[in-house]
Design a protein that fits this description.
83% helix; rod-shaped; single chain; 4 helices; mainly alpha
């Protein structure tokens, strides 16, 4: 049957997130090395640098954009799931809203 548009978008989004996460790890480890080994910053100074970096990350709009896209994809997938399960119930005759046969004849 193939993937739905929402599923394709989700896989693309996950790929982007994983790629950026990898680079963030590389940069984070290299920065920690530089702060500790080359600059000889005290733990307090390193903590202040990390706070400033965390604040900069919060300003990055990509995280918010990804969150919005993920919510949209989840909603789309939920609708698809509901349609599929409703179609399965209809095909089996499992209509939850239909009264039992004994009540229908009364």
């Amino acid at each position: 049957m193939g993937l739905t548009d929402a599923e394709l978008q989700l896989t693309e989004l996950l790929g982007q997130i994983l790629e950026l996460l990898r680079w963030n790890q590389v940069l984070g480890y290299s920065n920690q090395y530089l702060l500790h080994e080359k600059l000889g910053l005290s733990p307090e100074d390193r903590k202040q640098v990390m706070k400033a970096a965390a604040a900069a990350v919060e300003q990055d709009g990509r995280m918010q954009d990804w969150g919005k896209r993920l919510i949209e994809i989840q909603q789309s997938l939920q609708l698809i799931h509901e349609r599929m399960t409703a179609g399965d119930r209809d095909a089996r005759g499992d209509d939850d809203l239909a009264p039992p046969a004994a009540e229908a004849d009364a």
